[in-house]
Specification:
Blueprint: H1 2-12, H2 18-25, H3 29-37, H4 59-69, H5 80-91, H6 97-111, E1 126-136, E2 139-150, E3 155-157
Antiparallel strand pairs: 1-2, 2-3
């Protein structure tokens, strides 16, 4: 990390050229390019997902079990061990339990609901225009309206 910071500081501040940094730090030119394009070292990135020769054909079955479990009571849902046992007994799975649990974890993480907390500071309002049908003096007419909401106090004005 120190080398990364030193190279970035030296080249970006104009103290030395990229070629001089290659010679001084004994780095390839492409490595210098990567250092300059990222503020901190990027982690290892796999180009393609790892193949699963044993579990691969059974992944859709695992997903179906998990989907079916969502309709059941929480205490009646399958555990990772129970899914592993079903795969072993019903489908002849010969792999390990940790691979099955990793797939369950990966699938649940990818299908989890995401909630974003909202923050409403005092003094901010939301304002919108619209139109609606209304009955006025026995006739249906189109009326225009505007609505202002103050989310901090949950007050509405129409």
């Amino acid at each position: 990390m120190k080398l990364w910071a030193d190279v970035r500081r030296a080249v970006l501040a104009g103290e030395m050229s990229r070629r001089d940094a290659c010679k001084k730090y004994n780095l390839n030119y492409r490595t210098i390019q990567k250092i300059l394009s990222h503020e901190e070292p990027p982690g290892y990135r796999r180009e393609s997902p790892r193949e699963k020769p044993k579990l691969g054909p059974l992944v859709p079955i695992i997903h179906e079990i998990i989907k079916a479990d969502k309709r059941m009571h929480k205490k009646q849902r399958h555990t990772g061990r129970r899914i592993f046992e079903r795969l072993r007994d019903e489908h002849g799975y010969m792999g390990g339990i940790t691979v099955v649990r990793d797939e369950i974890r990966r699938y649940k993480r990818s299908t989890a609901e995401v909630f974003m907390p909202l923050a409403h500071p005092p003094g901010q309002a939301q304002f919108d225009f619209g139109e609606a049908r209304a009955v006025y003096r026995g006739r249906e007419i189109k009326v225009m309206f505007c609505v202002m909401s103050l989310p901090y106090s949950d007050a509405f004005f129409c």
